[in-house]
Amino acid sequence: MRTPGVLFFTFLTPFAAFCQTGFNIAADLGLVNNNFKGLIVHNDTIVGLGTARADTIDWQQGLLVAMFDSSGNLLAHNVVVDSLGDFYSIDRSWGKIAKVSDGGYALTSAPLVRDGAVLIKLNRELEVEFVREYRNRRATACGRATSARLSSL
Asked: Three-state SS for 28?
């Protein structure tokens, strides 16, 4: 009874399973460790957000933003790095991309070492317009309280 099932999955599944050829394309941007964790689709443009190592600043990890057309052709890309030398990181709960009303994009991220969050605004060509950092005041106050307690011992 198991033999027909094994034969089916072994020999017939590769012929029955099909997909769109050429649709799953690996984007080689010439960057080290580039990967995408999120994307948005706007009209016929796909914009991906991920991380990559920038080859210009001591292989610093930054945010990779890349724009593709609906066929998967690369239109533009940019790696945004922290000016203070920290590594930008993204994960499922932080690190999002959104289209804004002026046609640009807003990104959120977190520095790897500093405690807080970062809001980055890009224009239509994926160039940085501004970077705003929001410090985590609760962690700072907690750190001060802990150091005060330790110094009183």
From this structure: coil
Domain span including residue 124: 27-152
Q: Indicate the number of domains in the chain.
A: 1
Q: How far is Cα 106 from Cα 126, in angstroms, rounded to an integer?
A: 10
Q: Which residue has the higher pLDDT, 82 or 94?
A: 82
The helix/strand count (H/E) of the chain reads as 3, 9
Please report whether residue 10 resides in a domain: no
Q: How many CB atoms lie within 10 A of CB 60?
A: 17
- Report the run of H or E that residue 109 belongs to, with start and end: strand 105-111
Q: 50 in a domain, yes or no?
A: yes
The per-residue pLDDT for range 9-65, each reduced to its tens digit, is: 555 555 445 544 544 556 777 777 788 888 899 888 999 998 888 776 577 888 999
Q: What is the pLDDT of residue 2?
A: 60
Residue 78 belongs to some domain of the structure: yes
